[in-house]
Amino acid sequence: KEWEQRFVSQKLVSDAEAVLTELVADGEAAAKAAGMLTADDKSEFLKSLHLRTLAHVLEKHMEQKGAKVEDIFGVMTKQGAASKADFVAFCNTLPEFTGNIQATFTEEQAGAMYTLLVGTESSLTLLKLSDLFKDHKICSVRTTLFDKVDEGSDIGTIEVGEGIKVLQTKEKGSNLVVRCILARDGAQVWAVLRSPDGENFRDVSSTVGRMESIEAFITGAHRRCLESAAYVDRTTATIAREKIGPLSEARQPLMTIRQKVGGEQSKVERVKASVAASKGAVYALRTNEIQKLQEARCKTFGEKSVNESREVVAKAEEKATKTIESAQCLTAETIKEASIAQLGEIKKASDESLQLLGEAKFVVRRALGADAFEGPSKNLLIEARVALSKLSSQVLAVERKCKSATESVRSAHAKAVRDATDAARKALRASARSAGQTSDELFSRIACGKSELSQAQLIQFAKTVKDEALTEEHVQLVYTEFGPQGLKRSGFGSALQEFRTCSQAVSITDRLQIAGAATKRKLETGEVFEVLEGPMTESDSNMERVRGRALRDGMVGWVSIKGSQGALLLRPAEKPFLWCTKQAPMMTSLGKGDTVRTTAHGEILELLAGPSEKAGEVEVLLHGKASMDGSEGWFVQRRADGSSCASPSKRFYVCKSSIAMTDNFDIKACRVLRKVVKDEILEVVDGEASQEDNTMEINRMRFKALRDGKIGWVTLTGNQGTVFVEASKHHFVIDVETALRETRSRDSKVLRTLARGEAFETVEAPKEERLGSSVILQVRAVDDDKVGWMSFQSGGSPPVRPWTAKILCRASVALTPTLAGKDSDAVRMAEPGEKFDAVDHPTLDVASGLRKVRCATAADGVVGWAAIGSADGRVFLEVH
Questions:
Q1: In CATH, what number is assigned to the domain containing residue 848?
Q2: Of the residues 265, 290, 312, the one at which a domain ends
Q3: Where are the alpha helices (DSSP H) in 329-339?
Q4: pTM for this one?
Q5: Can you give the C-alpha Rg of the chain in angstroms?
Q6: Please, what's the b/e burial string for 647-673 (b: 16 or more CB within 10 A of its CB; e: otherwise)?
Q7: How far is CA 327 from the centre of its chain?
Q8: Based on the number of CB atoms within 10 Å of its own CB, is 622 exposed (0-12), middle (13-18) or buried (19 or more)?
Q9: What is the tens place of the pLDDT at every residue in 186-219?
Q10: How far is CA 548 from CA 362, 500, 544, 553, 556, in A?
Q11: Domain check: are 129 and 232 in the same one?
């Protein structure tokens, strides 16, 4: 009908005009939002981008390190609030702190970020810094905005992808509404956060960018432009077939509207393109900023690295040059005539020079190994790399020259010291032997009962020994070699005691003369033998022999140094020490002794006796079930040391044939409580004994049934000889608490602990289990002279191993110039796989509580002190 078509025609035009009106409003809003970004001055957007970059960099760092905002704030300041200077200083360290080049800011930029963060407050608090990472959301459904929460006016929309900062939330009917700050322009508005239809926003971990929000808003407007154009096109197509009538009259207005929609669409597309270009321009500005800042940082870093390296190299080269000149003044003849002290001065200067050169090498190597030289900035550091490489070559050349110039002096000094020390040791040893004193006894006498011997005390004692080898200089050499950190009992023993290692099995005899001597036992290959007397020449064979003690078992006797054909049977050896690989107890005696103390990882022990191997003892195990709860398993009935955990019981009886349990002894006047069935276990009630009923010629006893605790009288043997109940041969009573295991293996799962007094019924005969053999040794701790016995199973991972001066680095650790040095004082780092020689036994650094060892290499000499492990149990160094 015509009136219906006219109504439809008017409706179509009216709807299209409404779409156009909304589109025009969207376009104006888009142009307004874009105006801020497309303006020439983009400084505010750069500030916003700086702050967003800071948030994202810190967020990524916290995620990687498992850190919190509190940790970041703690790095920034140790106070309750951070000043502007604190914040700027923190920002200067961000590239190194986070490992992210994007976190590069000038002091001016850092100051601007600080102003944005603190707002109206005077300083930056933890709460303000935390605001960067909380209460931020991003729009997931286009949502209407209001100026007030109650009866507020519609003031526009927020588009998908825009960000907000939540200020307040409030329940309003079935909706949760939010007062927030729009990221695109900073306006405070109200929006529906959650409705019955679902969530309109989702959480994000840090602030959403202002430019990204503007772009999201304009993208939403552009999307509606496309939708509006498509709607008008569909409407126009609907009436295109109408040639006459009211519907055909709507064609022209719709085409006009379509043209206007196209115009608005073009405007929004131009705005969208302009925003994208402006956003790109801001990011380009930021990229250019980073590049310039990085260039400046690289230049500063390169100059600093080169200058620091030059300073260290120059100092080392100056010292080395003087040392080389001193050494070159000496001839072969003057070296021979020089005293140990004179040679020592040049050797000391050489050591100091080589150490300085080693430190210089490390400084240069550390500079060349910096991440900047391998990262994206490496091309900016080519000049610095070339300069550092030249310095590295320069150091190596000076080091070679210094070693070459001082080699003869060092060799001559080493030989002179060795000869003098050996002569002094022999004189001290001979004096102790002639006095019939052990090294321990002599040490106690000289040290006046103290744990450490001073150099003055040793010199004073040497004056009482009539021997030309014991000059004051020679005694000082002995003290320095065996007590660099103070001469303790173990070091004194190392100087005086003489040890040899058996290289080929040889007899230990009871006398010097071989003819007619009785063999006590064979000294096996590898055994350690302490020499107590000799060497003395046996008159018949003209062989040199020594009297001594085998450490393995304390056997004392005479042993030949060489065989009849000249083969060396006993070769000289150093005093044996042990390195603790883990904690282990030192006992007062073997077996049931008390614990003296527990050793520490890396500690050094003096071997006094052993190691000897002891065959495994026998344990007796029982298999069965606990009467209390029926738990079935295995436990140790008799331990290896002979002590018993359980003993056969006389309290338990087993029912052999069903019989009644009654309430009293008199079988004629009793009442039956219940029936006792075959194989049921009964326990004798304490204080009861069997009683005989003379009238019926039967024996009865009062029992408690383990099954239900019922107590009553039961007949043992009937008048016809029938045995109803008899003493159990399979029950034991637990004497001491012991573990019930799933299987007979010592490593099997513990089911529970059997309590003292508990009954246990075996299901098979006892089993004997021989334990593995054990290693036994007696030791003395170098730290405190505590003496004790150690015992551990053969095989597996022993708690001690022979100490050698060969050290292997397992994890990176600082090498410091002094024992008490901190990691910050490191001359360089020891790296995993690197090998060192230990200059002396590990020493406890009282300040840090860590045990440290002084390390050296063949190439660099002494390089520094390194911790063996950390306080939390990490291992840095170990003997190999």
A1: 2.30.30.40
A2: 265
A3: 332-337
A4: 0.58
A5: 47
A6: eebebbbbbeeebbbbeeeeeeebeeb
A7: 48
A8: buried
A9: 899 999 999 999 999 999 887 788 889 999 999 9
A10: 49, 10, 13, 12, 6
A11: yes
